Amino acid sequence: AFNSILVFLPNKSKQSDLGERLSKLAVTIKGFKQSFEYIQDYVNIYGLKISQEEVSRIVNYNVEQECNSFLRTVIHDWMSVYQSKSIPIPRYQPVDSSINFVGRLARELLRMTSYENTAYVEKMSAWYDNSRERNEILTSRICNQLQEGVGTFGLTGLDRFFSFMIVKELQTFQ
Q1: What is the pLDDT of residue 13?
Q2: Could you tell me if 107 and 97 are in contact, meaning their C-beta atoms sit under 8 angstroms apart?
Q3: Which pTM does this prediction carry?
Q4: CA distances from residue 25 to 95, 104, 139 in whole angstroms, order as listed
Q5: What is the C-alpha to C-alpha distance for residues 77 and 61, in angstroms, rounded to an integer?
Q6: pLDDT value for 104
Q7: Torsions phi, psi for 73 (to 5 deg)
Q8: Sheet holding 136-138, edge to edge
Q9: Three-state SS for 174?
């Protein structure tokens, strides 16, 4: 679900369709959760717990693979603690410089909040573009959609990926 919805192609327009994609992802994830809830009642297993563990595993695996570009020693599929032989996590072809949805989402957020094209207005808690129209680019509404779409595990993964990016920039600067 993450990979199919969070594919960002180069966007020529100023306004991104991130909010729309995150809304679709949130609806899909909500549907999966409801399905697991219904199944757990009939089969007498902890469906929501299993789904949370699997989402955590998928997100952590994708963060790990995306962070490989910052590491000296690459973690291959067979070395990953998140990859399983019985239930493997598929790898898809990269769309851009990112390997998977974590990198694409992070780079889209960075592109949307670039200091060259936008300005953050603290009183409004939002980023606005630098054009004369001053269109809203990133607001708390999109942040809420991000929380609903990728969840806590996804936000934690983005935080970890951004940390790797910051360390790389600091090493380059030093």
Answers
A1: 47
A2: yes
A3: 0.85
A4: 18, 14, 18
A5: 9
A6: 92
A7: -105, 115
A8: 118-121, 126-129, 136-138
A9: coil
Below-50 pLDDT ranges, the chain: 9-10, 12-14
DSSP 128: E
Nearest to 28 by CA among 43, 60, 6: 6
Hey, how many other C-beta atoms are within 10 angstroms of the C-beta on 42? 8
CA 137/CA 126 separation, integer angstroms = 7
Closest CA to 37 of 25, 27, 45: 45
CB 32 within 8 A of CB 26: no
Q: 3-state DSSP call for residue 139?
A: coil
CB within 8 Å of 9: residues ≥ 6 apart: 95, 96
Task: Return the pLDDT at 14.
Answer: 43
The predicted pLDDT at position 40 comes to 86
What one-character-per-residue DSSP string does 73-103 give?
A: S---GGG-SS--SSSPPP----SSS-SSHHH
Distance of alpha carbon 83 from its chain centroid, rounded? 19
State both tokens at 15.
């306004």
